[in-house]
Amino acid sequence: MTLLAMRDVACRRGGRMLFTGLDLTLAPGDAVVVTGPNGVGKSSLIRMAAGLLRPAAGSVAAAPAALLDERAALDAELPLDRALRFWVEVDGSIPAEAGVQMGSGGMGLESHPPVIPAQAGIHRAAGADASSRAEALIPAFAGATKRKGEVALAPGRIVERGLAALDLTPLARVPVRLLSTGQRRRAALARVAVSPARLWLLDEPANGLDAAAVARLEALVAAHRAAGGAVLVATHLPLAIPGAEALALEAAA
């Protein structure tokens, strides 16, 4: 099964072509790390994969995805645990078969997951080894994402897992608006962690995180991939994601 397939994709923003001819495929267990200078289209690529931005050319097919971008997408007035629970209940009402099918002419929901042959254009990163601190945390986070064949958990239990995975349990009853910048970023990551989506789309996930939180992020990504998920990450900061493919975006000529 393919969770994300982008074929011959081009991106134009503000009358300027950012990139063209991009081919990218993600299957269960895969990870792709997108790098490049500011303004080259990293965030736009994430938004296209999420179905929020139409490509100037080419096509995008994607399974349901959990998106992390600059917006926390959490109700600022609610306590953190209730804000997360809202999304757990919303996510639980979305059919697992739903997905996005999009081309330069339009977009819509699919009735089945896309199954598309792998495309060329992604190159394996050399020397990508997990830090020992992230490796040590992986077993603790293996339960933060739903495993294949796992019995569905109650929403409250799912929220507890997400909070624990990002060391947010002591802040469960704190209104989101009172969280610090770093805490809000971890809360946004918890929002991704509690999603049942197998495809994670992470735009600059390490921004605002200290070293301990980055290690938790790396461990979460590893656990998600081990459970059959896939991850597309856009970042300008180094992340230890073993076996990830590297996609360096360059400005279109």
TrEMBL record:
InterPro entries with a match to the protein in the record: AAA+_ATPase, ABC_transporter-like_ATP-bd, ABC_transptr_haem_export_CcmA, P-loop_NTPase
SUPFAM superfamilies documented for this protein: P-loop containing nucleoside triphosphate hydrolases
Keyword Phosphoprotein assigned: no
Any one Pfam family match given in the protein's UniProt record, by short name: ABC_tran
Start and end residues of each ABC transporter domain: 4-251
Keywords: ATP-binding, Cytochrome c-type biogenesis, Membrane, Nucleotide-binding, Translocase, Transport
Gene3D superfamilies: P-loop containing nucleotide triphosphate hydrolases (3.40.50.300)
Keyword Transport belongs to the record: yes
GO biological process: cytochrome complex assembly
MF terms (GO), sorted A to Z: ATP binding; ATP hydrolysis activity; transmembrane transporter activity
PANTHER family from the UniProt entry: ABC TRANSPORTER I FAMILY MEMBER 1
Protein name in UniProt: ABC transporter domain-containing protein
Organism: Sphingomonas metalli
